Amino acid sequence: MQRHSAYLILVPTLLLAACSGGGGGANEEAIAETVTSDVVQMGMPQEAADASAMKPPGIPASAAPNLAFEYRYAFKLPDEKIGAVQEEHAEACEVLGSARCQIIDYKYDQADENDVEAMLAFKLDPAIARKFGRDAIASVEKAEGVLADGNVTGTNVGGQIEDSQGRSALLQAQLERLEQRLKVKLPPKERASLQERAEEIRRELDNEANGRGKGEIQLAMTPVQFTYTSDGGVPGFGKDNPFASAFDVSATSFATMISFVLMIAGALAPWALLLFLVVLALRSNAASGIRRWWNRNTPLADQPAND
After folding, report:
1. Displacement of CA 161 from its chain's centroid (Å)
2. Which of 61, 156, 237, 278 gives a 20 to 30 Å CA spacing to 264?
């Protein structure tokens, strides 16, 4: 658990501190104070609030300005606590306000008493996405849950936007040359060809603009997804599932037995093969002929010589 948490806190800290934009340490302190206040108000533990107030390392903001991040966390909790923790995370988003946090997807599925699956997906202000995930981990731990898996990815969306801007500049220059050419008198066939090419360039410019718009949205809001699943506990036994433990022990014992049998078979197989070949050789036609010849000649050899 500690290893997962340390990884998910350290890596995003280094990257998000670099890509959170201008504003320097004063903005970072203001954001940390705001998130800390929100966390305390929604009932998360004071330890999580103290952790949220920690300043990220002083990484220059220009180190990774073009990366759009995506966070995915998978939590395992006791079934009866999944709904409460999910609601707590939703309330945390509500406290932050729609300008900084939006719930974009929700799921709660209880197939039976001991099989609950849930999910929450958010769009968050990039400056607070890492802190939001860290506070969520703390609230899960408080509810006797664990972080089962976590994934943070960064995409160079800013670089893609810059490339698109370069392509658009070339297309715009080409379009202007075509429009200048169309202002003079031209043969009908040539004019139609130039007009068709101009329309193609306009469509390409629209596609480039749409792509940049999507990229700007990615940079403006960070996707964060929480999934919640049962920890495998059994009512009356807590987190320890005796049936699962018994199955694991049985499977281990069975695997040991199979390994022992295969080891014995491997040791005896060469000798068994040798015995089989010997028996096969003794029962062959050649062996039978040798035995007949031996039986036919042995009495003559045993008779005494005549004077």
Report:
1. 26
2. 278
**Residue 48 near residue 39, CB atoms below 8 Å:** yes
Q: Which amino acid is at 64?
A: A
Q: What are the domain boundaries of the chain?
A: 2-155+222-230, 159-216, 242-291
Question: Which 3 state secondary structure label does DSSP give 245?
Answer: helix
Could you tell me the pTM of the whole model? 0.51
pLDDT in tens, 111-164: 776 678 899 999 999 888 889 999 999 999 999 999 999 888 888 888 888 888
Digit-coded pLDDT (tens) for 81-122:
999 999 999 999 999 999 999 999 999 988 776 678 899 999
Cα-based angle 172, 178, 180 (whole degrees, multiple of 5): 105
Q: What is the 3-state secondary structure (H, E, C) of 22-65?
A: CCHHHHHHHHHHHHHHHHHHCCCCHHHHHHHCCCCCCCCCCCCC
